[in-house]
Specification:
Mean pLDDT: 77
CATH architecture of the largest domain: Beta Barrel
Strand content: 25-35%
Order of helices and strands: EEHEEEEEEEEEE
CATH topology of the largest domain: OB fold (Dihydrolipoamide Acetyltransferase, E2P)
Largest sheet: 4 strands, antiparallel
CATH class of the largest domain: Mainly Beta
Length: 174
């Protein structure tokens, strides 16, 4: 210990009597506790309190299991190759027109949560008909179809964030 430095003493109550513990004894105590299954230790005085908690996890010992030999049986019939499914044409492959978002915001299908949607798949729309709302910066912006035809697909889920230019729905023009 360097001259002029006092040792760290901690007074603690042990069976009704105060006892003192210095830093080295504390370190030795914590080291001894580390090799046990004690999960928490507390030392407390009028001016000092020390609590040490640690997570004690037990590892389960896995019992050995008997393995059975794997028996390979040759197939009696050779598997037949199934033709790959035909690709489903995307809306872009058809002559459908995309209604896209003119801004970043949140997509809503109805004017209010308790009201019916503006349009459903299969509905006919006119070129100035409102088909949805995009909320941007607390403003509700009505989006118009800009094409006359039948709504073939709604590409966005109600309440979902949308990006500028993102396809909202597909219309088959007529």
């Amino acid at each position: 210990m360097s001259p002029g430095r006092q040792p760290l003493w901690i007074n603690r109550l042990w069976d009704g009597e105060f006892v003192s513990i210095n830093f080295n004894e504390l370190r030795e105590l914590l080291g001894a506790i580390a090799h046990t299954d004690i999960a928490e230790v507390s030392l407390k005085t009028e001016t000092f309190e020390l609590t040490v908690r640690r997570d004690i996890t037990t590892t389960a010992i896995q019992s050995p299991t008997a393995t059975t030999p794997e028996v390979l049986v040759p197939p009696s019939v050779a598997p037949t190759a199934t033709p790959p499914p035909e690709p489903v044409p995307s809306p872009a492959d058809k002559e459908w027109v995309a209604i896209t978002s003119p801004m970043v915001g949140t997509f809503y299908r109805a004017p209010a949560p308790d009201e019916p949607p503006f349009v459903e798949v299969g509905d006919r729309v006119g070129n100035t008909q409102t088909v949805c709302i995009i909320e941007a910066m607390k403003l509700m912006n009505e989006i118009e179809a800009e094409v006359t035809g039948e709504v073939m697909e709604i590409a966005v889920t109600n309440g979902e964030p949308v990006e500028y230019g993102q396809t909202l729905m597909w219309v088959n023009p007529s």
